[in-house]
Amino acid sequence: MGTEILNCTEQALPVGAQAKRSTRKVAVSWGQKVVHIGGSASVVVQSMTNTDTVDAIATAIQVKELAMAGSELVRITVNTPEAAREVPAIREQLDRMGIDVPLVGDFHYNGHKLLTQFPECAQALSKYRINPGNMGGGKRRDDNFAQMIEVACRYEKPVRIGVNWGSLDHELLARMMDQNQQRQHPWTPQAVMRDALVVSAVSNAERAEELGLAADAIILSCKVSHVQDLITVYKDLSARCTYPLHLGLTEAGMGSKGIVASTAALAVLLQQGIGDTIRISLTPEPGGDRSREVVVAQEILQTMGLRAFTPMVVACPGCGRTSSTVFQELASDIQTYLRDQMPVWKTRYPGVESMNVAVMGCVVNGPGESRHADIGISLPGTGELPSAPVYVDGERVVTLKGDTIAQEFQEIVENYVQRRYGSGANHS
Predict the structure, then answer these.
(1) What is the DSSP string of 287-317?
(2) Is 150 annotated as a binding-site member?
(3) Is the pLDDT of residue 427 over 60?
(4) Hey, which bits of 94-182 come out as E strands?
(5) What is the per-residue pLDDT across 274-295, written as a single tens digit (0 to 9) for each?
(6) Is 222 annotated as a binding residue?
(7) Residue 8 annotated as lining a ligand binding site
(8) Nearest CA-CA partner of 239 in 178, 204, 195, 284
(9) Which of 298, 219, 283 is nearest to 249 (CA)?
(10) Residue 241 assigned as binding residue
(11) Residue 405 has pLDDT above 80, yes or no
(12) What are the Cα distances from residue 210, in Å, to 150, 213, 300, 426?
């Protein structure tokens, strides 16, 4: 008989992410819609269009798609006079469609000119994204930056000062490289670059405050494309300021590589309480759906227990016991069905986003996982009896058989949602 090994501490080991770091709270608004970033607010999901902003209709349609997928802020490129001229039209089109998601203008090189020359654009945007590394050099850079901050102050718009290692201020980096050579033990060039990113972000935020921008209208980001660099930079940045931070692995890549890299970096930081908004910068497959990056961002937050967006489906990976594809098809269909219902369910059935559904493929873990879920089904594996027990709130309620298992199980899910989360139901 084995000897029990007990935890010697008096308390159980803690589970969950650390408390979010203390930051100021920034409000990004359009009309009655207000998205809070930082403070006690939940982590916000962002995305960005890849349409030509000059095409106002196509851009408005994609913004709507991203918003419907769950993006709480949507950034659009504003790079030319023609694009700036169309921003009010995009906003008007969204308003007509009943889409109140705030728009963020992404500016590089000529933002100071566009915001000044097109005041309607400056007003239609809810937030400006400024890259201090792409604003020229010397006095010209300072003047251009000041001009953008003055516009932000005039229209009371918050600003994200977004530093990127692909466009880092060359003059700042050169100075810091020279200073590094005076150290008794010089840092590596990569370490100096990481430090320069943080210095650039914080110093530009402080300069914005000197120019009159409120401290609670500033968000910072320092984006790099390597996981370990991103983790180090944001840990340093979070220790040096109390501004809210936007997280994202820039140029994350395509497909599984981009998803894995972004998840690996952001999960570490979020677990440490670092990060107030996130974006997953996926390169879409040719003809791919841009909203995929929104779904991935939501799934990261939900699987970490930080937020809930849509009912989650637990499904086994399959093995030699599950030669049938029935459970795979059912898991996929149910997951798609649940996400498709959420635009209606989130207002009709409050709390449904926290529901867990299990679709299992054989008797090994099927009944156990199904009991742990709010509602679950254990489909027959190879050689098992052709029956599928269904569990609701831990209790076996029915056993399905025949060719209509999928349809019957979906009906059970629908009835469960209505009964548990509908009007008058106990949502506890």
Answers:
(1) T--TTHHHHHHHHHHHHTTS---S-EEEE--
(2) no
(3) no
(4) 103-107, 127-130, 159-164
(5) 999 999 999 998 888 999 999 9
(6) no
(7) no
(8) 195
(9) 283
(10) no
(11) yes
(12) 11, 7, 37, 52
